[in-house]
Here is the input.
Amino acid sequence: MPTQHGGKIRVLPGFKLTLGYTLLYLSLIVVIPLAATFAKSTELSWAQFSHTISSPQAMAAYRLSFGASFFAAVINALFGSIVAWVLVRYEFSGKRFMDALVDLPFALPTAVAGITLATLYAPNGWIGRWLAPLGIQVSYTRLGIFVALTFIGLPFVVRTVQPVLADMDPEIEEAAASLGANRWQTIWRIVLPALSPALLTGFALAFARALGEYGSVVFISSNIPMKTQIVPLLIMSELDSFEYAKATALAVVMLVVSFALLLTINLLQWWSNRHNATEFA
Amino acid sequence: MTDEEKINAPRRMTEPPFMRRLLIFTALAFIGLFLVIPLVSVFAEAFRQGVGYYFHTLRDPYTVNAIELTLIAAGISVPLNCLFGVCAAWTIAKFDFPGKSILLTLIDLPFSISPVISGLIYVLVFGAQGWFGPWLLPHHIHIIFAVPGIVLATIFVTFPFVARELIPLMQAQGRTEEEAARVLGASGWQTFWRVTLPNIKWGLLYGVILCNARAMGEFGAVSVVSGHIQGKTNTIPLHVQILYEGNDFTGAFAVASLLTFLALVTLVLKSWIEFKHVGIGGIFPLPIVSNRDKQT
Here is the structure.
């Protein structure tokens, strides 16, 4: 029955039970194990910690991880916007199929994506055999890592830009056109600025996803330290040689980067919604 | 845009036909290269040595064992995360309390953490060198390199799926229907079963489908805690890796085709729910806070 709480009448039951269970489950599964990771990293002295996270192998891994993830996200931002535009604005056969297929990288386990891409882009694979005569090797090189990261980040930009584009009021474009703007000016000055927060959010999501990716890259990369080893693979190789403290130190660096990206994405999303609320309300 | 509108649309409101064709072609080429070709090639590679070898691989005891373990891991983690999702959504959508946005961010957290780290954190808690390791070992409780570790890692990576599907949905639906049911004399449980659940069932199903797909396909996190013991701690994705690294490529793709089939079923169900129930969806890692801002 309705309970009195802090002067306000609460009609619905179960607040304490559900909040309690939510906090308990969240603590057991997420908060405590994450805290353990930060605690474990304090077992290293500051000198050891900084030595581990700034070793040449780690620096090379950061450069590769950030570089490959960045370029993969750029390609996804470019082509993802085109895919979103085409899906919202045009009619063509196979559109529904294409729309559903965009989410494939979410639904397909990363290990399957990894072996498939590695096989396709191997020198005797369906795609690799056309690239091999040109002297382009994809599988087992950095280019392969970039291909895998592009694959797994593909849905993000499409799915963030698509709804914003669909909600966009055609009257704004009509106004621009009637005031004498040509199509290019309308897109460049009116449509693109309105899409940019969503586009940036999609970019950041694709980048964040690529940074942590392991399953698909492990198959398509040759995992050579300093050359084709991304950070998650470096952490894995430290674990395989029972260097738990080193693995933890690297994990802490990646966790801090993840948190920073999560914060950025939250801010971008908030900005995106404000932007759309004020421009298209 | 309807056909009529399209005909009447002034020239400056749309792109020239050749530009339209170029954009459609670019999109199709991109999707074809990155999605269609890989999808087709999984099945082509799986049947490379004939149907006989395909079913031979699938009937192999190690494969059967991997399938069983994957079903166990998903069978435990999906219901648990489902229960959590409903509780979290109820408490967040139906009540006001301070710290809500922090709670939302924490629920989102597992999405932004690398799978390798998702596995590592449990090694640091339950592993031989971890917090509880020295206590677990003499009691013969094995969590890491055993089935419980696999289940835990699976729970972690699929943690937000149901919650983040239900929270925006229940926030949008508000509290009035439940409050009316209560005022008319329904008990708490009656309100939940008869009012809330029918309202959220499609969103719940949507979340469960995505949660299940990830639970059955998770590789990185499970790989860290598994120990890769064939016949004991191998899930389907890990079995794919073992076959692939043992140069049994056709076998690896045969097992991978099961997961690909699961992915296709997931996509079909997902599209179907989105088509039938507009408003459900918005698959993923977009911060939930947004929905509240949207309404204001």
